Amino acid sequence: MGVKVAKFGGSSVADGIQLTKIKDIIFADPDRKYIVVSAPGKRFDGDSKITDLLYLCKTHMEHNLPYEQIFQVIEDRYVAVALNLGVETDLQEHFDRIKENLKKGCTADYIASRGEYLNAVLIADFLGFDFVDAEGLILFNSKGKLMISETDEALREELSKHEHAVIPGFYGTDAKTGKIRTFSRGGSDITGSLVARAVNADIYENWTDVSGFLMADPRIVKNPKPIHHISYKELRELSYMGASVLHEDAIYPARIANIPINIRNTNVPEDHGTIITAEHDVANTNVVTGIAGSKDFTVIAIYKNMMSSERGFLRRILAILEDFDMTLEHMPTGIDTVSVVISNSTLDGKLDDLLEAFDKQLSPDTMEVFEDIALIATVGCGMSSRAGVSAKLFTALAEAKVNIRMIDQGSSEMNIIVGVQNKDFNKAIKAIYAAFTEDEVK
């Protein structure tokens, strides 16, 4: 027998019906021994997440507005779930303690964390597992940064005492003050990854409301193919380019421990989902793993004769961007040309000032600005070993009458990034997707 850690997100623990589903999932495999849970999410359109209601209570308290009615909604929701499941957990003592701390002026982190706390207490009782609080185990320094090694040691020591446990996600403790600290939204994913590392899990299952990742955005490509297997590197590339995937912080603890992550669907548990591993699956014959992109970039094309022989030219570009507190997205270069790619949100109305600085400090022969540019990344570990990948991609865009403004390929040859006009974004993604799936469709 092995050990599996299963994390269930907000939609998976939203009500009694969902909790019954996760109980069936957990008991279907005796290896699922450590369970990490989020706060209850929305049950239907127009519903509220418990965490949002808790934040609202805190806001009302700070502005001397009545919050009791909002808190009563929170209480009623947990009590209804407990009654529906036949669980006799004494939740009232927990409610009373939270309200008392609210009156004493508790922090926003504390009140926000109570959604996960209450849910973990309830679910532990429902499953017959031990409840293990994340307080005092997941540790942050005074700047709010996770203390990974200290956290790993504390979790490892505590969880070794429990054969089965439910752990609340999203929060931990300031190691110096002892106060509750939370991760950013989505922190329960990080908690799950930390627990998986601490117990040396064979696999970390992340249960949500989708059956893994897709090759392209389903809002653009109709019924895109699922990604059955993806490497951490490929995932990182797709995530950077805007694909809606796990945050890097949620992956890191499992990745450094070489623990596979399995994205699964609580509502369709028979689907195998997507497996994330350190290495590319050699059995996967797909050339391209996924396609992702983002809109609204500006490209500044700089030309200067004999640029390649001028020392420090690129360094000065980076120094100027640093002076403007701007992040560089990409910088494709030629012998006498360099293109600086910057997100419009980073430029934030400073384009003219930036161009003036480039002109004064770089003395270029010409500068040309291309606005409203979208970047699209075609990602796949199999690309570097296949001839004709670039030709197929560019041919597809040409046939779709999409004009390419910029081309950039990483040194790993795992991705090809093209810049196109914003208006051609959807058309370009559809063309690339069709080009690299047509052979498999036949």
In short, what is this structure?
By secondary structure, the chain is an alpha/beta fold. It has helices at residues 16-27, 50-62, 68-85, 92-103, 108-127, 148-159, 187-198, 232-240, 248-256, 313-323, 344-347, 351-362, 389-399, 425-441, and strands at 4-8, 32-37, 130-131, 139-140, 165-168, 171-174, 180-182, 203-208, 213-214, 226-227, 229-231, 261-265, 274-277, 290-303, 337-343, 366-379, 404-409, 415-421.
Could you please describe the fold and organization of this structure?
The protein is built from 14 helices and 18 strands. The chain is an alpha/beta fold. The model has no long low-confidence stretch (mean pLDDT 92).
Share of helix among residues? 25-40%
The order of strands across the largest sheet is 3-5-2-1-8-12-13-11
Q: What is the arithmetic mean of pLDDT?
A: 92
Q: How many extended strands? A: 18
Spatial gap, N to C terminus: 41 Å
Q: What is the count of DSSP helices, taking H or I runs of 4+ residues?
A: 14
Question: Structural class given helices, strands, pairing?
Answer: alpha/beta
Largest sheet: 8 strands, mixed
**What spatial form do the alpha-carbon principal axes imply?**
globular
Q: In terms of per-residue confidence, which ranges show pLDDT below 50 for 5 or more consecutive residues?
A: none
